[in-house]
Structure of LacI family DNA-binding transcriptional regulator:
Amino acid sequence: MTTIGDVAKAAGVSVATVSRALRGVDRVSPRTRERVMAAAADLHYVASPAATSLVSGRTRGIGVITPYFSRWFFATVITGIEKALREEGYHVLLCDLEGHTFDTRLPITQGMLWKRADGVIILNVPPEPGERDLLDRLGMPVVTVGNRQPGWPSVRIDDQAAMAMATEYAIGLGHTRIGYAGTVPTSVSHLQTPFDRRQAFTDVMTAHGLEVRPQWTLRCDWTADGAAEHAERLFAGRDRPTCVVAASDEMAFGIMSAARRRGLDVPGDVSVIGIDDHVHSRILDLTTVRQDVEAQGRHAGALMLAALHGHEVSPSHDEVLGVELVVRGSTAPPATADRARPTPKGVKTRTRARGVSETLAV
C-alpha cells in the first residue's frame, strides 16, 4: 500500500508538505503542490480520512440532530443539508433522538459529537439547559432549523403565519364550524412547532368570533395513522365540522381517510387543509400551505459552511423563508352557510418573511 512517505519521497518534499498540499493549505507554492499532486496520482495514493482528521483537526462531518429520521419533513431537510455539504467535501453525521413514544426523546450527549463533527445543525429540537451548556463547551458552530434559539443562527418558516394563512382561507370560504388536528400533550417539550401552530389557529378563530370546540380538536402523534384513528369521533355524528385544518399534511391525509370511511365526501361534506405540501399532497389533491423544506436544509448547510470557512455569521441571523397557499380539490365552501367570497381556484397566496403576503395568479 502506498503511504504518504512514498509520495513525499517521489515529490522530493517532506511528509508535512505533502499533507498540506493534499489538504489545500495555502502555505504551499503552486509548483510544489503540482509536483505533490502528480506524485500522488502516479502512486495511486489515497489519504486516510482518519489520518487527515488527526493532522487537520477537522473531521469534515457535520452532526445533524433530529427528533425523527423516518418522517418526511426531517428526511427532506436532511437531504437539503447533505446536498449543500457534499459540494465541499463534508458529510452528514446523523444523530436521531427519537424515543420510544411521541412525547419522549433521547438526550444530546458529548459522545454523539466529540471528535466526530466540526459543527452541529439542530432540527426543531429546543435543547435543554444542560444540552445547551454542552454544545457551548464543545465550541463548534451551531445552526438551527425550524425554531429560533438565542445565540445561534437559524433557518425556518413562520409557523404561526403558515397556520394563520390556512385558517383564514377556511374562514374566507365561509366555514364557521372548523375543527383542528395537531394538538399534542404538554409533555412534548422537545418540539415547538405544534404549539406555535395551535396558538395561531386559536388566535385567528378568536379574532373572527368563532368558537374553538374541544370536541373538534384532535390530539395525536402527527402521523396519518394517528390522525385517522382520532378523527373517527369527529365524523361519528351529525354535529360535525364542515372543515378541518390540520397542522401538517400527514395529519390531513388521515383526516381525509377517516371522513371517507364514514361515507363523507371531501370537499362536499367536509373540507380539509394541511401545511407542508408533502410529496404526496398533489397526488391526493390536498389544499395546503406550502413550505420549501429541502431549501431550509440547503440554507442551513450554507450557513454552516460559511462559519467553517471563517466567514462571519451573526448569532442573531434569522432566515425566515416564505410560504404559499396552494389551493387544490380538498376544499370548497360549506354546503349550507352564508358563504364569504372564496379565493378562486388556481390562485396561490404566498407569504414572504415576517408574514408579508401577496397573491399570485397562475
